[in-house]
Each structure stands twice: as structure tokens, then as C-alpha cells.
Amino acid sequence: MKYILILLALASFGSIAIGYFAETQFSEKFIGFGVVGIFLIVIPLFSYHRWKDRSVKDYMITKENLDKMREQENIK
């Protein structure tokens, strides 16, 4: 998954760079596809890859988590 993300990110940034620097008929489309690739493919895949084994409950402010934080603060 890591290598796929790197490849997709490089392809998207490469597409944007080609769109800016190459004087072609489709340069605006290269830029557009690069931006779409980053925001609709790379960022969601990266977020999924980084958060797939974590519990969202650990990061929510609940009564139990507040009590744990207060206990740790009193210990120090």
C-alpha cells in the first residue's frame, strides 16, 4: 500500500508539473487530472492506510477518557 500511494502521488504531481511546464494542447487537463488524483484518490487512500488499525474511540472525548486524563494529571 505504501508503494502504491507513493506511485500515485508521484503520478499526480508529475501530471501537474507536465501541465505547467509543457506547452501542449492538453496542459490544463493534465493539471486538472493531477489535482483530482491527489484529492480524490491519494488523500483518501493515505487516510485509510494510516487509520485502519486504530480505534476512533481512543481519540474521542468521553467521560472515561476525561477521567483517565484527570488521573494522569494528578499523578504528575
Structure description:
The structure is a single chain. The protein has 76 residues and is mainly α. The protein has helices at 2-21, 27-51, 63-75. It has one domain. The chain is rod-shaped, with a radius of gyration of 21 Å. The longest helix has 25 residues, at 27-51.
Summary?
The chain has 76 residues and is mostly helical. It contains three helices and no strands.
Which key phrases capture this entry?
76 residues, mainly alpha, 3 helices, 0% strand, rod-shaped
Secondary-structure blueprint of this entry?
Elements: H1 2-21, H2 27-51, H3 63-75
Helix pairs in contact: 1-2
Low-confidence stretches: none
Q: How many individual helices? A: 3
Rg on CA atoms, Å: 21 Å
**Global morphology:** rod-shaped
- What is the structural class? mainly alpha
Number of DSSP E strands: 0
- Quote the average pLDDT: 90
Percent range for β-strand residues: under 5%
Order of helices and strands: HHH
Distance between the termini: 40 Å
Q: How does the major sheet shape up?
A: none
